[in-house]
Specification:
alpha+beta, eight-stranded mixed beta sheet, globular
């Protein structure tokens, strides 16, 4: 079958919350829009299995809420961005009522902030289609296209079901491809391999906040459920002794205490003291949470069960592509980032924005990126007649003679270096340098030798993206020689005054880092190598 060739004003890559909002926003601006996802838009990514809440704050309460949140950002967030996403979310969610059946609260009022993930994404798909968006399901993107001047020109990929290549020329491209959980087994995250980070970096984009990737979610040991509420949980060892575990809201301390116990042996959770109001409604608000217990014959609120920490990487971490303006444009003209593909330091700083802030960010950054891309297309035109350069390298175009590469071994290397509790939660220079060496060796082999065809290209590029994301995160963790938020250096446990600066990272074969002030003012370059 011949290659699929399309043109559009705006191309959105991704299929989750941010991607759908970006497509809707661009279409509302009058742009022709193509939305391409490696899965099926409406079931794709981590939101589809969750019950996301949104940062929903009445106007009179915003100043206090923003100030409280800002105090947890460790000097890396911006109050103006917090205000913007809260206000945009407040004004936008009610517009989905024609497609989504919002619940009613105890006072009989429509309850907008909390949604059921599967229905929410199906509603966004219908909203996008009604707005005139062309959706390409099962069309994973493999690489970006750029004009000779370096600006975005579209993307190319491979259609899984049609078994043919595709290529879309567009004036504006939005990367809404999600974050990277390093194949931890986190529910809904298998395809979240950092593809957008890799494609963006190949085109010249920079990343920020990648050191804030050491975060986990607690689930039953046999299956990630992501969202089971453990706020009232008690924890026990194999002998039935209760463990002293800080509350979940103390992210790092909570995870470190659990991880330390798990390194000693199995840990069991007891949810008998969960809020009484939660028990009868859990199935309705989180159906994906209940099913794994029922399959095992475990009574969620009555039986103790073994638990495990599943790595969330940059999904609940804050790192991602650096954005340089209010349209969420990256350092590459015409290339925008939204959702977990973009850094969330603007609203969360060094702490996790997981939960309602991240959902509000996905909505707002999607709207901003889609509208920004549409306005750029209106100003510049598609320039479809100009030459487009293919930017993909690792896994597609080897820099040496092609040869077999053990991709499974490369993925195991990523998992070993990024998900091990002792390496991620108690970082040290010695272990980080050892991780960097192993990751660099795996990257060099893949970049030099791997040349895939057809469907194999998708797997090869996912492996390359996993490796690239792990290398950026590791180099950033090495460069930030202090502890801040999610990033803990056991050999530098203090938080320094001069560390209240964003750390930018980039590069492929050679990774570089540099510090910036929170508002984006460049400071002296600092190499991690």
């Amino acid at each position: 079958m011949s290659q699929l060739e399309l043109e559009a004003d705006v191309l959105i890559l991704g299929g989750g919350m941010a991607a759908a909002w970006a497509a809707i926003s661009a279409a509302r601006e009058g742009a022709s829009v193509v939305l391409a996802d490696k899965g099926f838009v409406g079931t794709s990514g981590v939101t589809a299995t969750a019950g996301p809440g949104h940062w929903w704050v009445p106007p009179a309460q915003r100043e206090a809420v923003i100030e409280k949140r800002y105090q947890t950002a460790y000097g890396l967030a911006e109050k103006a961005w917090m205000e913007r996403i809260i206000d945009t979310t407040w004004r936008t969610l009610p517009q989905l009522a024609a497609y989504y059946p919002f619940s009613v609260d105890g006072q009989g009022q429509t309850y907008y902030p909390g949604v059921r993930g599967p229905e929410y994404l199906r509603a966004l798909r219908r909203f996008a289609l009604a707005s005139g968006v062309r959706i390409l399901d099962q069309h994973p993107a493999l690489e970006l296209l750029t004009h000779p001047d370096g600006s975005a020109a579209g993307a190319a990929g491979y259609a899984r079901l049609d078994r043919r290549a595709w290529r879309v020329r567009a004036a504006g491209v939005v990367l809404a491809t999600g974050g990277c959980a390093f194949r931890s087994g986190l529910i809904g995250s298998h395809t979240n391999t950092g593809d957008g980070y890799l494609m963006g970096a190949e085109a010249g984009a920079e990343l920020s906040g990648m050191e804030f990737s050491a975060i986990y979610t607690l689930s039953p040991a046999w299956c990630s459920t992501r969202t089971l509420p453990y706020t009232a949980a008690r924890f026990f060892d194999a002998e039935g002794r209760e463990l002293d575990i800080p509350p979940p809201l103390a992210d790092r301390a909570h995870h470190q205490a659990l991880a330390a116990a798990m390194l000693e042996g199995p840990v069991y959770a007891d949810l008998a003291e969960a809020p009484a109001a939660l028990k009868p409604i859990l199935r309705r608000i989180q159906p994906a949470t209940v099913a794994p217990f029922e399959r095992r014959g475990v009574r969620v609120f009555e039986d103790r069960f073994e638990v495990k920490l599943f790595g969330e990487g940059t999904i609940r971490g804050t790192g991602g592509l650096r954005v340089v303006d209010e349209d969420c444009q990256t350092t590459v003209r015409g290339l925008f980032a939204a959702g977990d593909a973009a850094t969330r330091e603007l609203i969360a700083g060094a702490s996790s924005g997981g939960g309602s802030p991240n959902s509000a960010w996905a909505l707002t950054s999607g709207l901003a990126a889609g509208a920004g891309a549409a306005r750029l297309a209106r100003r510049d035109g598609r320039r479809a007649g100009s030459r487009a350069l293919s930017m993909g390298r690792a896994g597609l175009r080897p820099s040496a003679a092609a040869a077999p590469v053990d991709e499974a071994a490369a993925i195991r290397t990523v998992q070993a270096e990024m998900l091990s509790y002792d390496k991620a939660l108690w970082r040290r220079r010695e272990s980080l340098e050892a991780s960097r060496a192993r990751l660099d060796a795996a990257w060099t082999e893949l970049a030099l030798l791997r040349q895939a065809q057809g469907l194999d290209q998708v797997a090869a590029r996912e492996t390359a993206a996993l490796l690239a994301t792990a290398r950026w995160s590791t180099n950033a963790a090495l460069a930030r020689n202090e502890s801040r938020g999610l990033h803990f250096r056991a050999d530098a446990p203090e938080t320094s005054l001069e560390g209240a600066r964003r750390l930018v990272v980039g590069g492929l074969d050679t990774v570089w880092t540099r510090y910036e002030a929170p508002a984006g003012r460049p400071l002296a370059a600092e190499a991690a190598a």
